[in-house]
Design brief:
Layout lengths: L8 H17 L3 H16 L7 H9 L1 H15 L10 E5 L18 E5 L5 E3 H18 L5
Helix pairs in contact: 1-2, 1-5, 2-4, 2-5
Amino acid sequence: MGFFELTDAAAMLRKARRELDRLAREASIDHVFNFFVTAHSVTDYLKGVVAEPDRAALLAERDIQLCRDVSNKAKHMTLDRGRPDPATHHASGAIGGAAINTVAINGVGERWVSWPDGTRLEMVSFGKSVLQRLEQFLTDHGLAN
């Protein structure tokens, strides 16, 4: 039995699914942090399990790189290795001083992450995309269960 019963990439992927479910129900920063750190950790659990070129190819994919950015920014507050530094913000659904068509009237709170190049992603949708890619990778390598 591994640490906290998180013994392999499939176990971490199941944990990431639970974290994303929590994030979808409540846009808490705790859930944002937990999902992206967990999702990025799935790639750590692939070391020595899949061929390194396959793992490197996964890590080079845009969504996985952006997931790593969010995870590392959350854990370390800054990024290194020349990665652009993302910023987050929370849309409460209130109109306030927001520009027209940028906030849904009576919308629920959403969390967003933005990069200096103009990339802007809503956390739940982005999380679903990351999770889908990780699920496919594990399935393709016979690791999903």
